[in-house]
Amino acid sequence: xxxxxxxxxxxxxxxxxxxxxxxxxxxxxxxxxxxxxxxxxxxxxxxxxxxxxxxxxxxxxxxxxxxxxxxxxxxxxxxxxxxxxxxxxxxxxxxxxxxxxxxxxxxxxxxxxxxxxxxxxxxxxxxxxx
Length: 130
Hints:
mainly beta; 11 strands; seven-stranded mixed sheet
């Protein structure tokens, strides 16, 4: 059984920073975590793609809304993925989820598709005050 556990959320003022972590356990990381993604869901809105990273970390993608402010990274030795969030805005307020796609990389058009991810964490709340 694969478990993804997010942490690092909280309340921060606009312009501040947070670092989210996603710790994976339960199976060999390399088997199910080819692409790792971060998604978010604000109240009343659909879950949306934030960022993704390939197994090697050589390939990353970002939503336009966070490009230049957020950085995704991973440490495969620690079975952990991170999301560094800088210059936070009130519109970044949401529950943030990490997800794992066990299929080998299929191209840029697949990383933002929720249904391509096999495992999901329970989410961590990020609230940015103005």
